[in-house]
């Protein structure tokens, strides 16, 4: 009797969350590294760094949430929002250790962008996974 064990509710989100978070980190770091290369090659203004970081964080959360939702195949908005929030929390912890600066309004904006883009990515990830052809 080989029955598949149902995942416990607390473990149900763990694998998709890890997959989504790692994907989001890889995408965000890649975008930031490419942007840093453009800062070095071209003489870009320093004021462009914050919007680029916000866009990179939003895109990373979005792509990570799509990966998490495709792994989970259900509850896209929840797993997407959790993925965005987890990536935000990790970046916040790292930035608090890296700098002595206080939390700013940019932190709140980054939280909103990352969580909402994660939720949107989760919705799209679940819906795109449902369009598989059955033969």
Task: Describe this structure as you would to a colleague.
There is one protein chain. The protein is mainly alpha-helical and 135 residues long. The chain has one domain. It contains 5 helices and no strands. 31% of the residues are buried.
Gist?
The chain is mainly α. It contains 5 helices and no strands.
Q: Provide mean pLDDT, rounded.
A: 88
The percent range for helix content is over 70%
Largest sheet: none
Tally of contiguous helical segments: 5
Termini separation: 27 Å
List keywords for this structure.
mainly alpha
List the topology elements:
Blueprint: H1 9-12, H2 14-41, H3 49-72, H4 76-98, H5 105-129
Helix pairs in contact: 2-3, 2-4, 3-4, 3-5, 4-5
